[in-house]
Amino acid sequence: MALLYLTQQGTQLRKDYGRFVVQLPDADAIEVPIKEVEHVCLFGNIQLSTSAISTCLYHHIPVVFLSQTGSYKGHLWSAEDSQQQTQALQYERFSQPQFQWAMAQAIVRGKLWNSRQLLLKLNRRHPLETVAAAAQGINRDRRAATNLTLETDSLNSLRGYEGAAAARYFLALGQLLKHPDFTLTQRTRRPPTDPVNSLLSFGYTLLFNNVLSLLRVEGVNPYLGNLHRSDRPEAQLAFDLMEEFRSPIVDTLVVQLINQGVFTLEDFTPPNAEGGVYLADPARKRFLQGFEGRIMTPSATPTAPNLCPIAR
């Protein structure tokens, strides 16, 4: 099964019998059997015909709309994907503080465990004391988050330990980059202000889209989060469930691509009026290939205790 990424501006996607036809503005059309497509991702000015939209709805193929720089805009999916019994149980759980606390705490524990494990893994060959100290600090944050209780603490306390660990983590991660042109001292977003943060933001957007689409395929309401909750109409559950996968999927890939010299500074746009730096079109395809390879790579089950449980 294929995830179809369309990035070249002015591309058109239409349906012709049992095939999707991708018409590039300056090249011959490409035909893809509909039965081989399970997900479509559109970047910027991509034209989608009415017949292609109807086909995606009929075959339950989610379509993701992103800006040209990779910012999430919205989704197209069939209302038939919703499962009333599942969502009724979700709403019941959503109103239970104990369930919300247990899920949120498990997500933070799992995220911090994976963050620490990645630092330890990358720090093995040429160990740095500062990175080892950051890993120890993250472990202390994880233990402290584990010791919190719903009766005496709040979600803000839990998020506080998550934020403290994230600050340690990204500073240490930057020290593990081997390419002299790429640096990372802190996480910046909306907009990302340097090439490394640009790669991280783009990867997190792709990860979010994968989780969101899987939730829709399973008929789950993606707006009912536990760790993430706000009045804004955002897919909070998708943000929840992607947390543990940031380090093993996106961060691992970004460090690998940078250290292998896959990108140069010329692959990124100059800062825009808001200071945002983004991956340019030709280089974006290389990142997409790397991301698909990474997310399809089998991984051993983490041995950490108390990772996020399946809600039952």
Task: Please specify the SSE layout and strand pairing.
Elements: E1 2-6, E2 12-16, E3 19-23, E4 30-33, E5 37-43, E6 47-48, H1 50-58, E7 63-66, E8 72-76, H2 84-94, H3 97-122, H4 129-147, H5 155-175, H6 195-217, H7 236-242, H8 246-259, H9 281-295
Parallel strand pairs: 1-5, 2-6, 5-7
Antiparallel strand pairs: 2-3, 3-4, 7-8
Helix pairs in contact: 3-4, 3-5, 3-8, 4-5, 6-7, 6-8, 8-9
Structure description:
The chain is of the alpha/beta class and 312 residues long. Helix 3 packs parallel to helix 5, helix 4 packs antiparallel against helix 5 and helix 8 crosses helix 9. It has nine helices and eight strands. The C terminus is likely disordered. The chain has two domains: 80 residues, CRISPR-associated endonuclease Cas1, N-terminal domain (Ribosomal Protein L15, Chain: K, domain 2); 211 residues, Up-down Bundle (Four Helix Bundle (Hemerythrin (Met), subunit A)). Strand 7 and strand 8 form a beta hairpin. Strands 1-5-7-8 form a four-stranded mixed beta sheet. 46% of the residues lie in helices and 12% in strands. The chain is globular, with a radius of gyration of 21 Å.
